[in-house]
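Example record

The entry below shows one chain as it appears in the dataset: sequence first, then structure tokens.
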Amino acid sequence: MLKFFFKKQQQVESLIYEYLGTLKLAKDNFHDAIYACLASPGVCDTFDFLREQTHKFESKADDIREEIKTLMYGKALIPESRGDILGLLEEMDRIPRLLELILRMIETQKLVIPDFIVEDCEDLIEISLESCDFLFKEVEALFKERKEIRALVSKIDNNESRCDHIERRMITKIFDSDIDPFQKLQLKEMVIIMGEISDQADRVSKRVHIISLKRRV
């Protein structure tokens, strides 16, 4: 019986690492899609392909999460751990959804990012996606029982504060500009959702930290 549970545990961990790898692919394609638009405003020849790739990996991550859920409800882990891990994956899943939402907004609303916020936009995206990378490392550290979770929590928290500052600066620049008022509202909504990436990474990071502390009790 113990051998059976150990095998199930290994299967769960293997799927979680696959899940993290899939999220990284969604993140990388999102990054490239945003930069394609920044480099060629209003043209974005490769945008549709990169958006579809982002969606593909977001959907694949959903499928892997469902597979993990099915396996865990088949007694792969004790109930206490099951709730923590499934809740963690549910919260993580919001990140690729945000990435896809941003790309959908750019596509459907025909958004063009003005020159005066391009540099800020690049900073916001880079720092937010760095937080995602830190989070993926943190989740991996949780399962491999490495002692780097607290340091990663601190880095993600610091990035979240930096992103909040950039977000406020961008919105101020948008409303101080003389662009069309409706475009201002569109850009504001986009910036807020971009800022939500680091916010969500910070929330999930703190959740990982709590799970790691509970394991020590």
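Notes for this example: The CA atoms of residues 32 and 126 lie 11 Å apart. The radius of gyration is 19 Å.
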